[in-house]
């Protein structure tokens, strides 16, 4: 449990987030982490594992100095990455991009290091990413993208927190009809979108017929996008018939997500496929000639150390998918792992350095985001071969354009005079079906 006392709400929230970033497994632990602030004498007191840490808060910008002093304590207590300094949000590249566009690379670097206490290496990393993104963002910022949500899966992985329905075959048809109605009933007349992204869940789990109805509705309403992604996720769904269906509707990019190439891990994660299934699905997809194939991997899975992860990525590097996306394990509300302690089996920063050496010859980092309670205060990173960056990922993470979203719980991002407004669809599937089918 994390307890923050004697602060205003603004300071309390910021300090809570900083502690959670560096001690993520303590939020739901029986062991308390207690932070108190003595405003009169200007010092912080942190009580952790029956030890007391006091640090003086310097004069100056109080909000900055309190967080800086807390950061100095946390650096002593944790094996987590220190490169993020005071940053706890999920979109550090959005901050970096705004600084970069306003002040240029060098001034943005100085701001991130001096005012946000990032490491120079970490600040350079995200500024290099936003430099790669810049041309695409400038070209597409006045356009829009489309997201379509299909919340079904064949099984639920132990790390997953998404609101998905497992083997809910009775809901496939009514949900499909409702989703098609919602897409077809979209009134706004727009030019063709920059990108279309069909996610979930596992969209391919609803079968050929239902998916064909949804793809047909998307095509009829929005035409042809520069990039059209469908999350295939599980290799067991990627039959020749499924791949041909996707190709026939103009899908240009798919995801086949091994998460790991260790057989024992796949079984423990409740993934009902084998390593051989991954190879077979990937080879079938290559024969159909999609423009881009992504593979997802998770770093920090139970029972996997550095050598196991590197071995999985060596296999991926040999297969050469166009994108490789690495997710540091995050313990999320709603996942089976929520009550498990994070076991720090390796230094994440060192692992990322080894991964950069392994992939760096052919792949470049093109987008990055973070999550709450993420392994060792790490990050999720997308790597791409030359000219293979995923446009939707960039525009969505950087919040750089409008997104029209369809399906249960899907969030649209709409332009308004003073910025953007988020609108979220009905979160209950029965209510969504009832309301939208009308």
**Within the CATH hierarchy, at the fold level, what is the topology of the largest domain?**
pyruvate-formate lyase- activating enzyme
Strands of the largest sheet, in order across it? 13-14-12-11-10-9-8-5-15
CATH architecture of the largest domain: Alpha-Beta Horseshoe
Largest sheet: 9 strands, mixed
CATH class assignment of the largest domain: Alpha Beta
Give the strand content. 15-25%
Q: Which structural class should the secondary elements be placed in?
A: alpha/beta
Describe the structure.
This protein has helices at 9-22, 62-77, 92-103, 105-114, 120-140, 169-184, 208-222, 240-248, 263-268, 275-288, 306-319, 348-359, 391-397, 429-437, and strands spanning 2-5, 33-38, 43-48, 51-56, 144-150, 152-153, 165-166, 195-200, 227-233, 253-256, 292-299, 323-328, 364-369, 380-384, 402-406, 411-416, 419-424. It is of the alpha/beta class. It folds into three domains: 2-77, Ribosome hibernation promotion factor-like (Double Stranded RNA Binding Domain); 92-138, no CATH class; 141-424, Alpha-Beta Horseshoe (pyruvate-formate lyase- activating enzyme). α7 (208-222) links the parallel β8 (195-200) and β9. The chain starts with a strand and ends with a helix. The relative contact order is 0.12. The model has no long low-confidence stretch (mean pLDDT 92).
